[in-house]
Amino acid sequence: MANSGDLERRSGVKRAGERQQVISKLVIDSDLAGITDGLEDFSHLLVLYWAYRVLPEGRSLIKSHPMGRKDLPLVDIFATCSPARPNTICATVVRLVKCEENTLTVEGLDALNGSPIVDIKPYNLSYYPAGNVKVVDWMERIHREFAEGSIAGDGSKET
């Protein structure tokens, strides 16, 4: 794995604000009936999923410009939140809207439709503390641009 560079930007990158409002249904295999009992009392879940559409060249990336943007620094892939990585297991925190039998309705899932769910855990602040978190300047810039709406739907900067 000595590959360095960027994957072609994929269309469909959503603004962070839009993604947070998307409602999704996670359908659990009916053979696992009862496995979601007790989740209804939690407000948020940690969802681990497989980024199954990452191509082999994405799994060999070592360095990349975040979001394929050349105006951002070339960094090691583990310094990004990109699904293109050696092991394409991704994690996201979602708000639990409804829990019905084997279907969880959630808000804010950033996985593509059809992504296999690897695991679901209740989100617990004591396990995932958020105090004194340091984020690099370029990542704060990306989040600020998403919030301001100055990043286009394909991840490029709007001018």
How is the topology of this model organized?
Layout: E1 3-4, H1 16-19, E2 23-27, E3 44-50, H2 56-59, E4 61-64, E5 75-76, E6 89-100, E7 103-107, E8 117-122, H3 137-148
Parallel strand pairs: 1-4
Antiparallel strand pairs: 2-7, 3-6, 3-8, 4-5, 6-7
Describe this structure in words.
The protein is an alpha+beta fold and 159 residues long. The protein has a single domain (3-148), classed as Beta Barrel (Elongation Factor Tu (Ef-tu), domain 3), CATH 2.40.30. The protein contains 3 helices and 8 strands. It has helices at residues 16-19, 56-59, 137-148, and strands at 3-4, 23-27, 44-50, 61-64, 75-76, 89-100, 103-107, 117-122. The strands form 2 sheets. The chain has a 5-stranded antiparallel β-sheet with strand order 2-7-6-3-8, with no helix packed on it. Strand 6 (89-100) and strand 7 form a beta hairpin. The protein is globular. The N and C termini lie far apart (36 Å). Mean pLDDT is 83; it is low at 8-17.
Number of strands: 8
Helical percent range? 10-25%
How would you characterize the largest beta sheet? 5 strands, antiparallel
- Radius of gyration, whole Å: 17 Å
- Approximately how much beta-strand content do the residues carry? 25-35%
Q: What is the average per-residue confidence, as pLDDT, rounded to a whole number?
A: 83
Number of domains: 1
The total of helices stands at: 3
Secondary structural class = alpha+beta
Q: What is the general shape? A: globular
Attribute tags:
159 residues, alpha+beta, Elongation Factor Tu (Ef-tu), domain 3, 3-stranded mixed sheet, 27% strand
